[in-house]
Amino acid sequence: MDTVINQDWRFKLVRFFSNRWVYHILFWLVLLVLLTVIEDTRRGFFFTFSNEIINILFYAAIVYFNLLYLIPNYLSKNRFLTYAALLILATIIITPLKMIVFYFKFTGHPSLQTQLIANQGSYFILTFVIATFSTLSKIINDWVRATREKQELETRTMQTELRFLKSQINPHFLFNTLNSLYALTLKKSEKAPEIVIKLSEMMRYMLYECNEKRVPLSNEVHYIRNYLDLERLRHGDKVDIRFEVNGHISDQQIAPLMFIPFIENSFKHGLTNQISKGFVDIKLMVDGQQFDFYIENSKPDALPVQEHHRRSGGIGLVNVRRRLDILYPKNYELTIHDNPKSYAVNLHINMNA
């Protein structure tokens, strides 16, 4: 019970001090104390303190007139000359009013009245400087807030875009895998149960791990091995599939399903009935936090004509590049080699940058 009460009080305090007017009041109180401390108190503390209260009231008047009226109605609408003229006019009006208040307050102190009249120009400049400072503070504060809101918007946009891209990837893999399973069940192949097991492991990975921004590289490698085992079962001896991992895999993290689109496309577009003996050669080189993924596959001399003009699905390199741009901006290199007999992709990701 005490813990709940303490948390409630902390929440109320945070909410209270988050109010911008609380910050304003605290600012003026601190300024009042500082001005009182640095002023001459030979005529008594309360005399000096009351003088600074008057100063603060007039400073606050010009500041809030500037913040609440002049800036929104003139400066924010790019009416710079009108804004400057009105700010000077406000200073001209407020400064003599303050002088009159002080003149009557200094009754009985002729020397202070004389100093007051002699220093009218200094009081005017000081009031104008304070008003100008409030303008600069407002501009800086608006710029900081706009920058923060822009960054938050970009972050939300990136997160939404990443979720969209991954939603395109995952159903695509499931679609191809189920196609493979369907083909083998039609043939009553004994390999079908093994494919079901592999599919189960792949689905578990996609459902429970791929929602994270980063996953262990070792898990991604295991998923690739399952995917390739499934393809070996489906293609048999027709395709030579090689997967080689060089380097030490420990606790490295990577975005989920980053390599799979290249592997999936190599089987989908690179291996056809026109090739009697195709190949898919994959190498993953790990050097600390730097990854080099290389894949090369055989390809036919001409692209096959699809029946009924059906287009095969696929997330495409456009989406892959977009995902890389979001996750690893300026920290990756993607090179594609389209050779007469093969198609190769090399992806370098530097996690240290």
Radius of gyration: 36 Å
Number of domains: 2
- How far apart the termini lie comes to 48 Å
Describe the sheet with the most strands.
5 strands, mixed
| Helix segment tally | 10
Unreliable stretches, pLDDT < 50, 5 or more residues? 305-314
Mean pLDDT: 81
What name does the CATH topology of the largest domain carry?
A: Heat Shock Protein 90
Number of strands: 7
Shape: rod-shaped
List the SSEs and their pairings.
Elements: H1 2-17, H2 20-38, H3 45-75, H4 80-105, H5 110-118, H6 120-186, H7 192-208, E1 215-216, H8 217-235, E2 239-247, E3 253-254, H9 260-270, E4 278-287, E5 290-298, H10 316-327, E6 332-338, E7 342-350
Parallel strand pairs: 2-4
Antiparallel strand pairs: 1-3, 4-5, 5-7, 6-7
Helix pairs in contact: 2-3, 3-4, 3-6, 4-6, 6-7, 6-10, 7-8
